[in-house]
Design brief:
Elements lengths: L9 E5 L4 H12 L3 E6 L2 H13 L4 E5 L5 H15 L2 E6 L15 H22 L3 E10 L12 H21 L5 E6 L6 H4 L9 H5 L3 H4 L12 H12 L10 E3 L12
Parallel strand pairs: 1-2, 1-4, 2-3, 4-5, 5-6, 6-7
Length: about 260
């Protein structure tokens, strides 16, 4: 096994202030990558920046709201000024703002979900794709909800369905540049979104998992399991380190049920 499989690489991870994004950013740094990270919270992103630096890797960080196009552009500009090129892009950041029925939904929250979950990854990829080197990897964090209509939460379902299609389209366009594009479906994971936590009341993954399966499964199949974000990071690292010519346009999933299950997370 190569001790530092991402040595000499530059990785970009959005939504890296906590949860899955934080775990991925740290896993990539431990694997030898220099990392560019963003999140809405300046304090959270500063902490992760320091942790990456303590691992001996370079880090470029910036607080960014992916719904703000100028902030996304500035972040990408800063990445290229510091690193010149990109090898791995992980579009992880996302929001779950509107959970009600379509007829009762808040139009502003519905559309902001699309801005963050779809336009954000589009802009990041559009700004950075020309700077991606041969063998580059684009990993889009999506959801089983993008494969089923479900009930309520239509904005989230629609946004993840769009991101799935973006993955497939990009894979078709970029294979001749030897850049692979794949989706990663974490399944239920111990994050603030899964916990439905209010701002300021977020719990650590360890605290969430301490509730036990009887509390956490929330009506999901008994054979499902809520995972630690580090488990998702392990899968992301595997995807990021495939040799050129590996899978592209595919879905990697840690869920324990079919993607079209209406309860998928």
């Amino acid at each position: 096994m190569i001790e530092k499989p991402l040595a000499g690489k530059v990785a970009v991870v959005t939504g890296a202030g906590r949860g899955i994004g934080k775990s991925i950013a740290l896993a990539f740094a431990k694997a030898g990558a220099d990392v560019a990270i963003c999140a809405r919270s300046a304090s959270e992103i500063k902490f992760v920046d320091q942790a990456i630096s303590e691992l001996g890797q370079k880090c470029f960080s910036m607080p960014v709201d992916l719904a703000e196009t100028e902030q996304v552009s500035a972040f990408c500009h800063g990445i290229l000024l510091k690193f010149d090129a990109v090898d791995v892009l992980v579009n992880n950041a996302g929001v779950y703002l509107e959970r009600g029925a379509f007829a009762d939904s808040d139009p502003a929250l519905w559309w902001k979900t699309m801005e963050v979950n779809v336009r954000g990854p589009y802009l990041l990829t559009r700004h950075l794709v020309d700077a991606m080197r041969k063998g580059g990897k684009i990993i889009n964090l999506t959801s089983g909800k993008g494969y089923s209509a479900g009930v309520n939460s239509s904005a989230y379902h629609v946004s993840k369905a769009a991101l799935n299609m973006m993955t497939e389209g990009l894979a078709n366009e970029l294979w001749d540049r030897e850049i692979e594009v794949n989706s990663l479906v974490p399944g239920p994971t111990a994050t603030a979104t899964f916990d439905n936590a209010k701002p300021g009341e977020e719990r650590s993954p360890e605290d969430i998992l301490s509730d036990g399966p009887d509390v956490l499964l929330k009506g999901l199949h008994a054979w499902e399991r809520v995972k630690h974000p580090d488990e998702v990071a392990h899968m992301a690292l595997q995807m990021a380190t495939y040799a050129i010519g590996g899978p592209t346009g595919q879905v990697f999933s840690l869920a324990r049920r079919p993607m079209w299950d209406a309860a998928s997370t």
